[in-house]
Amino acid sequence: MTTVIMRTTARAVVPIIFVVAASLFVEGHNLPGGGFIAGVLTTTAFAIIYLTFGLDFLERAVLGRDVDPGKEPARDRIVVAYHRLFAFGLTVAVGSGLVPLLFGRPFLTQTFVEFEGVPIYHHLEVASALAFDLGVYCVVVGGLLTILSVVGAE
Amino acid sequence: MIPMAAVPIGTDAQLVIAPMLIVLATAVATLLLGQRPRARAAVSVAGAVAYAIAVAAIDWYIVLAPDAPGIATYQVGDWPAPFGITLVADGLSAFLLTMVATIGIASFVFSMRVLPELDRRSYYFPLFHFLMLGVTGAFLTGDLFNLFVWFEVMLMASYIFVAYDGGPQHTRAAFWYVALNLLASAVFLLGVGGIYATTGTLNMADLAQRLAEPAAYGIDPGPVVGLLALLLSVFAIKAGLVPFQFWIPTAYRAAPPQVTALLAGATKKVGIYAIIRLSFTVFAGAQLGVALEIPGVGVVVSGDSPLAFMGAALFVMAAASILVGGLGAVGRDSLEGVFAYSSIGQVGFIAIPVAIAATTASPDLRHLGILAALIYALNHTLAKGLLFLSVGAVRTATGTSRLADLGGLARRSPPLAIAFFVAALSLVGIPPLSGFFGKFLVFDAAARAETVPVLVLLLVGSLLTIAYATRTWNRSFWGVQSPAVEDATPDSVQVAVLLGLAAAILAVGVGFEPVYRFADAAATAALDSEAYVDAVSPTDIESLDSSGGGHS
């Protein structure tokens, strides 16, 4: 898999995917997009990295850790991190749904704030749905990457 | 944008969502506490207790108290119906929630006991709570698409439980189970999409309102009959009615016994609930001539609502279930095999009165039919739940559940035998146990419908029940003690759970009056489409168009 073409393409494509994923995530509350689709897109970037540079590349080259190649994938540190991301996302999503209860509103009620005169953007809308979307994003990325790395290692 | 309803939420409304939030929060907390087994167990217990309290509060404050409203709704995210997701707790939901909470707690206590290596089984409890979440959500939702979502939540957790032990036969069972349910989900989605295309709404109350007066909304309800048939097949798969029963024996054998108790006691009932809710609360009001000639037989099914067709189909499926389940159970060689087949047959017994209710024109008989189905379902949940849990207890004690390796358990562990005996008798329908009233009401409904073939069928089914119950009892509890039984040491907590459920079966039978009143309220709620629509009071979309987005 690791031809020069593949590696060069991956270097160019992966950052673009991350930027698109980020923009889909931010505008999700009032335009097509959102936490789920941004999460899936982020995972495809990871899939490309895995395909091009191998499963241990992230830990060895990006995080600078020593990797024991014979280790069971489910006990791998990075897979444990994916699990944590999944649990964290679920907590954020459920927690953001519970916050409105403190204000006497129903579960999952959302609101938004508008900022005027922000540099570059001029007009910025921050929706509370973003917190829920962040949770969804983390659940999707954590869940899919766990599957990808555990099944990919087998 | 639709303005938000600035009405403060009442206590009744908050109660509606309480069990769901409790079980959701417990699931997430147990997931987070994956590294600390003791804390996780403590949170699980607290969640289970809180869940039981929340369900009991719904029962009392919404349904049973003298000044109870009978129905309460909750608009998730403050979006008014039919745009947002509506949660509705009425008698029917409350009755089934109570049933599921009972077996859920029993299965939960049992789980705590049979999972010694708590740290290795770190995903068991989150999954358990997610399974309960799916079941709870399915009972409470008032939105068809949301029902689909809760079905999926429930299925995701049950997929993993079927494959839980990780052996080849578990993987095989899980593969079939997943494949079948993916297909069923696709069909469900197809039906939901079709209903949306036909009626323009998926809110159940709005749907009922539109189908009752299609002309006022400019819709043609014709396709709804076929779409309801699609949905019926999906719910029949969940309930395990013939011809969709084939997944049950393998899946029930593969899942851990305490989860099988939950699958038989709770997720099966979700199928039954969905059939009752959609047929009677939502689709019953549609005035629509139905005439279908069954090829080869010359019988014409006709009526003035989709229910006539639904009832006929349900009759055939239920009759076949009773025979297939009963005959299959007689010949099985393991405890869980007998009970899995018995489950198929018992769901037939639950579906027969529903079919009678669907085909009859008399409101009284319709009410009786639903009531009989609910009481029978309650008995099935308690008795079959107990029996599956006893499979777990027998396995813990003897290491096997094959009938050939068992024998003489009654002398080895009298308390275990007593619990098993009570459940088996209740299944057969001996007074004063809960099963007697279930069977009595089902026979009563069939007798009032004046259908002799159905009576004969019920009689044959009951005889088969006696046959397999006696055979199982004789093989495993009476006779000479087998080597496996001689060394058996039943776990005292497990046996205590079984005895608790046996006491519940006895209590339902002896103090039947309040249970009957509860089931009566549930049946009334299932049939009272108008009260359901009034409680949800969906906004009229047409009025929004003309006034530019006002909300009444």
From TrEMBL, chain A:
It is a multi-pass membrane protein. It is found in: Cell membrane. GO terms for cellular component: plasma membrane. It holds the Pfam family MnhB. Residues 5-146 form the Na+/H+ antiporter MnhB subunit-related protein domain. The keyword Endoplasmic reticulum does not apply. The keyword Transcription regulation does not apply. It comes from Natronorubrum thiooxidans. InterPro entries: CPA3_antiporter_subunitB, MnhB. Keywords: Cell membrane, Membrane, Transmembrane, Transmembrane helix. The chain crosses the membrane at residues 12-30, 36-58, 79-103, 134-153. This is Multicomponent Na+:H+ antiporter subunit B.
UniProtKB/TrEMBL annotation, chain B:
It is found in: Cell membrane. GO terms for molecular function: NADH dehydrogenase (ubiquinone) activity. Its main location: membrane. GO terms for biological process: ATP synthesis coupled electron transport. It holds the Pfam family Proton_antipo_M. The chain crosses the membrane at residues 13-34, 41-63, 83-110, 122-141, 147-164, 176-197, 224-249, 270-288, 308-331, 338-358, 415-434, 454-473, 493-512. InterPro entries: CPA3_Na-H_Antiporter_D, NADH_UbQ_OxRdtase, ND/Mrp_TM. It comes from the Archaea. Keywords: Cell membrane, Membrane, Transmembrane, Transmembrane helix. GO terms for cellular component: plasma membrane. Coiled coil: none annotated. It is a multi-pass membrane protein. Residues 142-283, 309-465 form the NADH:quinone oxidoreductase/Mrp antiporter transmembrane domain. This is Multicomponent Na+:H+ antiporter subunit D. It comes from Natronorubrum thiooxidans. The lineage of its organism: Archaea, Methanobacteriati, Methanobacteriota, Stenosarchaea group, Halobacteria.
